[in-house]
Structures are given as C-alpha cells and as structure tokens.
Amino acid sequence: MSVVGERLQPTIFELSRPGRGGGKIPHPPANALDRIPAAARRAEAPALPELSEPEVVRHYVNLSALNYSVDSGFYPLGSCTMKFNPKLNEWAARLPGFAGLHPMAPDETAQGTLAMLHELEAILAEVSGMDAVTLQPAAGAHGELTGILMIRAYHRSRGDVERTEVLVPDSSHGTNPATASMAGFKTITIPSAPDGGVDLAAFTAALGPKTAAIMITNPSTVGLFEARIGELLEATHAAGALAYMDGANLNAILGRFRPGAAGFDVMHFNTHKTFSTPHGGGGPGSGPVGVRPNLVPFLPSPRVVREDDGSFRLEREGERPSSIGRVRSFFGSTGVLVRAYAYLRAHGAAGLCEVSDDAVLAANYLKARLAPVYEVPFERACMHEFVASAADLKRRTGVRTLDIAKRLIDKGYHPPTIYFPHTVEEGMLIEPTETESIETLDAFADALIEIFHEAETDPELVTAAPHVAPVRRLDEATAARQPNLRWRGMTGAQTPCPD
Ligand SMILES: *Cc1c(COP(=O)(O)O)cnc(C)c1O
Question: Alpha-carbon distance 143 to 135, whole Å?
Fold first, then answer.
C-alpha cells in the first residue's frame, strides 16, 4: 500500500496482474496497427494497469466513497457557497444539443446554444443591475482579471495613464490583490474598521489621482453587508477611479441589492457558487463579468450578437477594436453556463429572492446558536456567512481552530473555512447556504458546541483528532512545499518511491 490507513486501498497499478482484463471489448481488426504511421507508434506497450471490469469498478467506487461531498453531507465551507446542486442542472448540461456541440461549429448550427448564452447574459445583467455581461472567464479569479483589464483599458482610452494603484481591503480574498498585480497595478491594502467594514478614513486617505480602481467584496468576506458602500462608491467616482465588486458573495443579496444600480462599474459572478455547479475539487467554474455602459466597449470578444432577424452569431475577428480581446478559448465553460441558466430559469425572480433570504436566515440562525459558546467578533446581523472565533478557547485550553476542524471530521462533518479572513484571530468562516434544513443546522451546532466542551474537559481528545478518518493529520507544510504527486511503480531494480 502506498499510504497507510485502514480504509485506504492499493493503487490501481498495484492491483494490476499481467494478462488480466475485461475481455469483453471486441478486438480491433488484425491490420489496425498498419493504419497508424510507423513514426507515431510506440516501441513498447504502455504500462497500463491490467484488471477485470469488476475490479476497476470497485476500485473507483471505493475511492469515491472516501470523498466528502455536498451530496454526502453538510459542507459549511465559508466563502465557497457549497449549496446543493439540483440534479435537473446535470440533465440540462448533458442534453445532446449542448454537450455534443463542437466548439468550432458554424453559427448556423449553434443557434440554440448561442440563444441560451445570449439570454443568460441578459438574466445576469438584470440580476446585477449591469448593462452587459461577458460569459468568457473561466472562474471568479479570471473574472477579476478580466474586469481589471477592462478598467485599465478604460483609463488608457482616456489618456489617463497615471493611475497605477488598486485599493483592496485587508479582509479581501487573496485573488483580489493577485489580480491587481497581474494586471500591472500596485495593491494598496485598506484596513478594516472595528465593525468589520472598510475603514472610511483610511480609504479616503489612500484614494487619489493614482487610484485606478477599488475592489470591494460585498457582502464582505466576514459576512457583513458593507454599511458605508454609498460613501465608498461616491468617493471613488469623485476621485476619477472605478469600482470593482467581487461578487462571490452574491448568494446573500439576490433581488435585494443590485451592484450596477448602486454604482459599481464592474463585477464578477461565480456561477459555480451562486447559481450552482458542483465545485471544490478544482473542476471547471465560470466567472461572468457584468459592466456598466462605460466599460461595454472593452468587453472581451467575441460577444454573442443578436441580428435583426432574431438569429445569433459570434462577433467577427476585429469587429470591435476597443475590446480587450479574447480571455478564454472558445466561449467559456459552456457546460457550467448551461447549469447556471437551468438554475436561474428554474428559480425565477421570486425564487432567487427566496434563495438569499433563506441563506441569510440559515447563517443568522447558526450564528445565534453558537454565540453563547464561541466568540462572534461582529455582532451585527450577518449575511449568508459569519465568523466565529476560538481565540479565547485557545488561550485557556491550547485547542486551536485547526483542532476543532479536525475533530469535526470525527463527527461526520466537513470543517468550515478556517484562518480566513486573516483579520480574525483563530477564525472560522461558516456558510450553511439556503439548501440545509433546520435539523442539519441544529446537529452541526450541537457538534461544534460539543467540541467546545471537549476542549475544556479533555483537550487531548481534540488536539489528536481526527480519530476515525482514513488518514490522521497530514504534514501540510511538506505536502505543500514538496508535493509527491506521482506514483512510481517497481520496474527492474527500481524500488517504489519511498514516500
Ligand atoms: C471564491 C472567491 C473568489 C475566487 O473565485 P474562483 O471562482 O474560485 O476563482 C474571489 N473572491 C471571493 C470573495 C471568493 O469567495
């Protein structure tokens, strides 16, 4: 076995036995090899594992059972919106007309997909109060980069080339400063005020003729609606800068706050968070970007154009020279966009308001259940997520937030986000989402409260957790710095990779 642990199993290479196979697949014709040019043929057969069909099926089914997922349990991962993904979306994404469309198909044969994309753009524009939307970016972080590149193009188009700075609050997601740097800007970090919002005085002091943009996450990464949003936006525009909204937390404000109408110039959506799509394992996402009229000329190309006769086509090369160009191959993560479209159409306007209302209610309920035990640094009603802290518990017992997270695994839960945002000591960012029942929320609160009492009476029980997981604590620093991502089999005198 490559990794120890009673529920782990050998790799598929270790299970392999020479000559074993399914044997049910018709053999290729005798002259199949002749059809492949000699130069393109392998000299030796590849060292593929050889197993019977039931062995393969069991191997992968058992491996998949080691995964924790939204379909198997509660997933309170703050900042990620791990909501249940309706199976209807999967049906829609697999419809042959969508799934089987070749990405280079001519516009005439892609009318259905183009119409869906065009309509999705319009729905997202309505939800956000923006004027136009691009569906190209592959994820939220990519949407940020797309938005900031449009802001850069806007300032340049006006000959305003002295704007080299982007203001970012200290609680922001790491992708915000990374985006600003990638687009060639200098990031200026703005401290938070004690109430968790942006410190207005520090913000206005940093704002000036060098400011290209501000990037604000609203609701913020501590789960609070940015109370001074009006002042922040007014000051930004008065300084000639543009306002970018990180829309990753849109799940809290659907139908209640429209960023474009409020004065934001550009924002991204994480459709895989707000509008469902299984995510978390690094699978494809989608990060559409909405813009106000001032940025429309710079939208990535090609856009979907609706002709007067009602047909659709993609913009032609060079048709809109002001565009920042293409940011993604073909037309984005179309399968993810079909899921978002299905989700939006299934819910409708009233349903989307309900999504947010329920998400906010669930978070406030959990917060109220935990507040008598854990510290809750921000008392104000939260949005769809909230921060709890174990700072005092750590001082008294030595049990840290990391230990609580590991102990939650023993109790059958995926831990919440921990140590983010960095502005809260021993923080846990908890996001229940709207798709959980009150029984689930209560059981999770009970588990967290139980761990709190365990920490007080038997701290070693918590610091040694997890006790029942397939693997114990991993050396995360080594795993991050020297990742061992490749299994090497025993060939000849070679020994297997020792680690
Ligand atoms: C998830 C998230 C991002 C990044 O989005 P991806 O789709 O993961 O690239 C950016 N900002 C915030 C606040 C987020 O929660």
Answer: 9
The rounded radius of gyration (Å) of the Cα atoms in the chain is 26
d(C-alpha 178, C-alpha 163), whole Å:
18
Residues 6+ positions from 138 with CB-CB distance below 8 Å? 284, 285, 286, 287, 328, 332, 333
CA 428 – ligand 1 centroid, Å: 17
From ligand 1's centre to the CA of 98, what distance in Å? 27
| Helix residue spans in 207-333 (DSSP H) | 229-238, 259-262, 271-274
Give 152-193 pLDDT, tens digit per residue. Answer: 999 999 999 999 999 999 989 999 999 999 999 999 999 999
What span, in angstroms and rounded, lies between the C-alpha atoms of 209 and 278? 43
Which tokens hold the place of 456?
A: 């007080």
For 239-264, what is each residue's pLDDT tens digit?
Answer: 999 999 999 999 999 999 999 999 99
- H-type helices in 239-314, by residue range? 259-262, 271-274
Kindly list the protein residues whose Cβ atom lies closer than 6 A to any atom of ligand 1.
79, 139-141, 173, 175, 217, 221, 246, 248, 270, 285, 287
Longest dimension (CA), the chain: 79
In tens, the pLDDT along 274-289 reads 999 998 777 789 999 9
243: number of Cβ within 10 Å: 25
Q: What is the pTM of this model?
A: 0.91
Main-chain phi, psi angles of 313, to 5 degrees: -150, 160
Mean pLDDT over 397-423 rounds to 96
In whole angstroms, give the CA distance from residue 265 to residue 480. 37
Residue 271 and residue 336 in contact, taking contact as beta carbons nearer than 8 Å: yes
**Domains of the chain by range and CATH?**
12-64 (no CATH), 87-345 (3.40.640.10), 356-481 (3.90.1150.10)
Nearest to 138 by CA among 289, 323, 246: 289
Tell me the pLDDT tens digit for each residue of 326-341: 999 998 999 999 999 9
Looking up tokens 């259905």, which residue turns up? Answer: 112
Whether the bond between 496 and the residue before it is cis, its omega within 30 degrees of 0, is: no
